[in-house]
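Let us practice reading a record.
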Amino acid sequence: MKKLYVCFLLIFSFSIIFVTQVSARSLSIDKVDIKSTILPNGDLLMKEAFTYTFKGNYHVVRRSVHSGHHNGIFQFQAYELLNSDATLETMTQEDLSQLEVSLENNRYFATLPVKDEKKTIVYSYTLKNAIKSYNSYSDLIIPFFAENKNHDIDLHNVTIDIIFPEKLDPNTYHAFFHDEKGEVIRKGEDFVRFSTPVSRMYRLTEIRLLFPSSIMYEQQKLPDPAPLKETLDLEEASVPKEIISEEEDIAKAYTTQRKMRNSFERMLPIFSVALGVLAILLLLLPQRLVRSKTTSEKLLNYDPLYLYMIDREGTKDSYAFFAGLYSLVEKGYVSVKKIPTSRRIQNDPEAPKNTLSFIFHPYKVKLAEGEKHLVDWLFIGKLKQGNRLFSLNNIYGRTKREKKNNDFSYREELNIFHKDESIWFNNLIDKMTQTKMLGGKLYLIIGRMFMIIATLSVIAGYYTHSGSGFWLIMYLIFAPFLIHEAWVRKSRKRILTYFFLSIFAGWLVVDSVVFPEISLFIITLAIVFFFTPRYILSKEAREVKAEIRHFKAVLSSEGVPSDVSGAELEKWVTRAILLDARKLSQHATHLSIVEMDNSLHQPLTDLFISGEEPTSYLIKTWKSSEPSLTSQFFDALNTRTN
């Protein structure tokens, strides 16, 4: 548990640092200079300088390039401008530092680690066949910043120069600037200049240039789609009010989405921190912290199965059936003796030479329902005297040699054993929850609610930061099935798996800008659920848990007392195995070899002292018998289709 605490604190500390960095950052674009050179073959050579002011930590900058009016984007490169005095006209290669660029959904991301600085980034690229040349004129349309989610920030002080391949009489070409506040400020022989004080987010900033096609001497000419005068008349005509209204509606819709996105980005880190605090509170539950100074001998009077259930907090592991057996042993219903392991097992050099056999002696006293189920399930062999027998030899899994030979002949028997064990254990849990010894509602509420929240966070992430609609559809197809499986089975592994599948879905579905916040949020959901106990212990059970914790501390520091013997020593060893199995090896030295004289009455102690503790090898063979993940997958498919 200490390792879990340390792991959680590290993750939570990282989360706090990450959240602080992400939630406090912002950027502005203070100046944009663009120079577009028309090439005679119809291509457009682009050079752009964006001046950013960063507040907080950033790792990338983004440039979105329109996908219309050209046949592709080529040779996109990004540079950091090192010389603040250099301009697009005067800069040299020595003034630039090239940045690594990646492409995602027609958006280019340049790697730029920066914090609280002002930087100028230069982009260069070529738009293939951006100019359409006809017999009478050429037509150039460039929507530099469009009415969509990529234009999600105001760009200030925008200047755009369109440079001709050769000199043109200004009276022979026509320039138009589609921008709320923009205008054509210079028409020269070499270039035409457009300028706007601000290109508002989600609003169109577009230029159109109609010029003589004679200078496009390397480009094939097409028939005129319409006379030049007609094209000019359409371009110069006033924009109808309904179009203006439509553009306003589009802008309002994007603005609303922007506000929702900003709220989403701000709230996710806050929720993540709140979940981290909740996880800490779960770590501070009384059943995890309460201590006891009671004597260890008091624990010997408790039923081993009851101690096991309290120690595991209602979660079954490989020692469950063993705890049930020794509950019957200490009540006198079952006797136990040491016997040789079967010949099949002894062929394994790692196997113990001896194991345990249990004999049920019928009594007039009526067994409890759970005890009767345990006896009917395990004790199926009979002796001559009519007593019923159970041996650990009956439930060994694959040996090392059988694993090499890919022998699965014992899998079916083990499956039946574990299914019966689960039925018996679940009935035991039902009884303990009915008596209020255990409470499992918190686990179910948090697990089921958090799966739904994780799903909604991915959907909300797509709505505010849309990425791939295809992967969202795939996620929504499989999510209900996976939630149903985890919901019904109440499996911690399945629920945790769903959280991490949701993170993977988020990576596919949402924009990379918000993915870190969504992934962090779902991770904190998983952490809170991971630290939610399967069952909440009652006050009485918490007191017993404290006594168990004290007993473990004594075992860890002092080992099994050397002055105990006989049946009392057997109880110590039984509880050491059931409650602290991971530390058995260091306790063996605390057992007195003198006790071997009574080994006929202490079979478990005898095996423990001789290094043949029976459960360790048994559990090892069970793990060896488990099928591969691929086999489990196809077995599950066969089960559902049959």
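A brief commentary: The radius of gyration is 37 Å.
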